[in-house]
Known about the structure:
Layout: E1 2-3, E2 10-11, E3 14-15, E4 17-19, E5 25-27, H1 35-48, H2 55-66, H3 74-84, H4 99-113, E6 118-121, H5 136-164, E7 167-172, H6 175-179, H7 185-205, E8 210-217, E9 220-221, H8 223-226, H9 230-237, E10 246-247, H10 248-259, E11 270-273
Parallel strand pairs: 6-7, 7-8, 8-11, 9-10
Antiparallel strand pairs: 1-4, 2-3, 4-5
Helix pairs in contact: 1-2, 4-5, 5-7
Amino acid sequence: MKTQESGNLRKGGTVLAEKLIDNDFVMFDLEADSAEEVIRKMADVMDQNDRLIDKEMYVADVLQREKVSGTAVGFSVATPHAKSEGVKCEKYIADVSKYDQCEAFVKSVKADFGSIDVLVNNAGITRDGLLVRMSEENYDLVVAVNQKSVFNMTKLVGSVMMKQRSGRIINLASVAGLYGNPGQMNYSATKAAIIGMTKTTAKELGPRNITCNAVAPGFIHTAMTDALSEELRAAMVKQIAMGRCGEVEEIAGVVSFLASKDASYVTGQVIEISGGLSM
């Protein structure tokens, strides 16, 4: 999703329109609309064009992921702020579980920037439930978002990187993919698959100077973990050697390292960031 910079679409620094893939626009006032209203307006346009698997699921997941409140929307504020610092920055939106949208997305990024140097595959949802009670729909949905998205984006961006003969790919796995987790058959399966995909990608693209690594976070402090009961959180923390949950910045730091020149000879690795959960 790219912010349109035309004068008639901006007023006093407030974003009034966003362009979705193709030529659909969603109108909103960043100062007047609440975070949920902004996201719902975007979801309405996408849903009308059959771009969403489940509109309500999309809204809930974005709100949870961005931890937004009031009138500030994380991904809508970031671009103007970055541009004010002289950084070329654009926003795009796509359902990465759908190959055709990923194709249009990657094409737009390549056209706007000329190259793609780093790919972080971070799309993920949960639809938890015990195996015998899990619906086929919830299994397939998690696989589509968590795993198929990695195939889609890695294939398309990998092709760009191969022509460049350079690139960094970082996949978000999980300790659930390493050790399994009761009630998360679908989620654990996708994260284990991502680990296998990471190693295969590293072997296939290594000769073109492209690295591919994964990080496997443990119990991280997010809006998702905030929803757990105090009792459950305490029980999980007891399993961690460092005696606390991790912070998102601690994950971002490792991802940043893997995307840097300092990690030029690191590939095919799965870095567990769990505070000693497995020890």
